[in-house]
Amino acid sequence: MDKRYHLFKKGNKVLDLGASPGSWLQYIAKVVEKKGLVLGIDINPLKWVTLPSHVRFWQRDVLKWEQEEARVLAPFFDVVVSDLAPLTTGNKDGDAYRSFKLAERALNIAHDLLKPGGHFVCKLFEGKETKGFLIECKKIFSFVKLFKPESSRPKSREVFLIGLKKK
């Protein structure tokens, strides 16, 4: 995804929502290097315990988190990524709706904390709310696209929304 859309650069400040277990956090930390900053937020503890000096992890519930707290580290971020996902129940419509609510929260955080020109990546399960969510994102970003990774199962509803260049 990063190779295709060039999301992260050396020195970027990146907010990672739904950071546990830490694979995105590790990847982003390598790309932004020590001149960058990565803040991971998740309700669950981080599995990756040794953090480089330019990476922080805060255990918080994103739905209740006061995002102004992030401004202690950076007034604005270059990229906000969200790998938030609900606990699935097998009810595809219900799971998609809960995923949409998490994506909506991530978009609100991104709208508040992203600098102009910043990027947003958000996981969601496709459902009846997806079209409206895309419309909202197009009001905020110059380029919006749904991306399904090759590693995703063909029948999976999981997609990533890419929002580039915040207006």
UniProtKB/TrEMBL annotation:
Tagged with keyword Nuclease: no
EC number: 2.1.1.166
Chain ranges of the Ribosomal RNA methyltransferase FtsJ domain: 1-166
Catalytic activity: uridine(2552) in 23S rRNA + S-adenosyl-L-methionine = 2'-O-methyluridine(2552) in 23S rRNA + S-adenosyl-L-homocysteine + H(+)
Active-site feature positions: 123
Enzyme class: transferase
Summary of the function given for this chain in its UniProt record: Specifically methylates the uridine in position 2552 of 23S rRNA at the 2'-O position of the ribose in the fully assembled 50S ribosomal subunit.
Name of the molecule in the record: Ribosomal RNA large subunit methyltransferase E
Source species taxonomy: Bacteria, Pseudomonadati, Thermodesulfobacteriota, Candidatus Desulfofervidia, Candidatus Desulfofervidales
